[in-house]
Amino acid sequence: MLPVLGALLALGMLAGLMFGSVRVPADDVLRVLTGNAEPGAARTIVWDVRVPRVLLGAIVGAGLAAVGTVLQALVRNPLADPFLLGISSGASAGAVLVIVLGLGAGALTMPMGAFAGSLCALLAVYTLARSGGSMTTGRLILAGVAVQYVLSALTSLLLVTSAQAEHLRAIMFWTLGGLADARWSTLPLPALALCAGLALLLALARPLDLLLVGEEGATVLGLDTGRFRAAVFLLASLVTAVLVTVSGAIGFVGLMVPHAARMLVGPGHRTLLPVAALGGATFLVLADLAARTVAIPQEIPVGVLTALVGGPFFLWLLRRDSRLEKAGSR
What we know:
Number of strands: 0
Largest sheet: none
Structural class: mainly alpha
Order of helices and strands: HHHHHHHHHHHHHH
Strand content: under 5%
Mean pLDDT: 84
Distance between the termini: 38 Å
Radius of gyration: 20 Å
């Protein structure tokens, strides 16, 4: 399965380098990638604009899918993902707050603000969902929606009160999500976060599998579920914060891709995580390609496109789970 997904990702990335407002033939793209292209418009378009954008799409898609896979295991809920649980919205609000308050937009201040926002949002959702002693699907969704409303109101307040054009542009970017600002200089930090985060999550594949048998079963098998969840929540928040810093809040990738990956390879995380990461990378690269080409010369924010696809999928998943719960109660 991994070779097939790798080939699909390579084809998607090649298409992403070829198509856009200006079409570049495949042979010209290959000459640019191999360093044999003469200086000119094609080289500038491909190497300076599209290659960083395609690479960033692959990195962000892989990271969001991996985080969504882990969150669904941690809360034992198929509807969990960084966007629906408020992590992406919290990271966006934290990053925007850093900009509006004039705390700087450096390599550390932005991710720190995004991390603080994502962690606060996750803690709020988890606390609200756990109130009453149990965490059901409905309670988790309501908690996520409530926190997202609060964060959306905060972002709207910042949008209304800020009179500076760069603040307005930044707020719109983090609200809608997009890869248009991708540059070579923006790639190292999210790439490092993805590689380190995915390596750590793969090392935790066995404890994640233990959670699938239930909290009591995992405790009997020797897992300290409370500490483990707290540590992985922190890791998921950190990875999401770094990704949101460079892409804005792109929703539903971490919801849809893990479900497709489980259908292909099953629930075991040692295999599931790499498949989900490759699937997420491929999905977001293709989604960004569609966002750039369906309305030429205008460009649709990729977060809008993923929401148009993910919204109906979420409703179908919610309806399916409600049917399963009714069948199980009979």
